[in-house]
Amino acid sequence: MNGLGTFILEAKSAAYVGGGSPSSSCRTASHDIRYERGPWRYLDSYFGGTDFLGQELVWKDDEPVWAMNYYGRVLDPELIDATAAGAVIREALSALYGLGRFLGAFEYAVRQYRYVDNSSQDVEAFSGIERIYVEEREVYRLEYHGGLIKP
């Protein structure tokens, strides 16, 4: 779909990673961040904090066209907490988005943490795992999958 990948990258950069302002919850107790440009609309809606589950959706002309589901959790709260994990993720994803992409293998160091993301590179149908390590110990993991929505 023409422009979809560009819009997803733009929306992801502006929303969670860019510190986008929370919007009103679309579901009870959800944390929502929205982004819009022209005919495109994006919503990142999730529940939880240290352990969390969410979904990103993109609409074009009010028709849902793309989605991603994710579940993340802190695996070792003695080595990382939700605040530190969020800071590592924001910095690493900002660097990844700076490369003009949001899928594919990526590794990034942030202080004592090593961020590693492995996924397929096809916006039409993909899956991946995002991890944070302290030395060789995995301390955080997020699994995600998604792709195009077709009528």
Structure description:
The structure is a single chain. The protein is α+β, with helices and mostly antiparallel strands and 151 residues long. It has one domain (4-148). 19% of the residues lie in helices and 49% in strands. The protein contains 2 helices and 9 strands, in the order H-E-E-E-E-E-H-E-E-E-E. It has helices spanning 4-14, 82-98; strands at 22-23, 31-37, 40-48, 51-60, 63-74, 106-110, 113-119, 125-134, 137-148. The protein has a 9-stranded antiparallel β-sheet, covered by helices on one side. The protein is globular and about 45 Å long. The mean pLDDT is 95.
* Global Rg: 15 Å
The total domain count is 1
Which spans of ≥5 residues are poorly predicted at pLDDT below 50? none
Q: Bin the helical content.
A: 10-25%
The portion of residues forming beta strands comes to: over 45%
How many H/I helices? 2
Instruction: Summarize the biggest pleated sheet.
Output: 9 strands, antiparallel
Helix and strand succession? HEEEEEHEEEE
Mean pLDDT: 95
Query: What is the tally of beta strands?
Result: 9
Strands of the largest sheet, in order across it?
1-2-3-4-5-9-8-7-6
Basic shape:
globular
Span between N and C termini? 14 Å
Structural class label = alpha+beta
